[in-house]
Amino acid sequence: MIQLSELREGMELPELKKTVTQAKINRYAEASRDFNPIHLNEEFARQAGLDGTIAHGMLILAYLSEMMTNAFQQTWLTAGRLNVRFRTPARPGDTIRITGKIRRIEKNEGETTIICELLCANQNDEAVITGEARLKFNDN
After folding, report:
1. pLDDT digits (tens, 9 = 90+) for 49-72
2. What is the 3-state secondary structure (H, E, C) of 73-107?
3. What CATH number does the domain containing 104 carry?
4. Range of 68's domain?
5. Is residue 135 within 8 Å of 113, Cβ to Cβ?
6. Which DSSP string do the residues of 47-59 spell out, in sequence order?
7. Euclidean distance between CA atoms 130 and 117, whole angstroms
8. How much is the pTM?
9. For residues 2 and 26, what is the distance between their CA atoms, to the nearest angstrom?
10. CA 33 to chain centre
């Protein structure tokens, strides 16, 4: 976990890499109860104009949250917020690189707010998810 005293604007967060597989997509469908065939049925996804099945956006977002949890532990879980845009689908076989950088640190009346820019990109450096995270630390 990164300590509050160590945080600096421009600091890179520890990177996370995940490989998307159809098996992971299938498990996520079971857990989320989202059985949309664009995630599970290759033929259906192709008929819908895709190149094959795609991962659930929330599966990739979970990877982003995992990176933030690795960096900020309980503070992220209790005081973190995300604002993201889904840019392009992740597909089976993609390797997703999840990165973040501290863009701004704001101190205000016993509280420190950390604003991070976030990126989930595939192996071709195409943005899958972009956005920002905010989390608050009590200075006490």
Report:
1. 999 999 999 999 999 999 999 999
2. HHHHHHHEEEEEEECCCCCCCCEEEEEEEEEEEEE
3. 3.10.129.10
4. 4-138
5. yes
6. HTTSSS----HHH
7. 8
8. 0.91
9. 33
10. 20
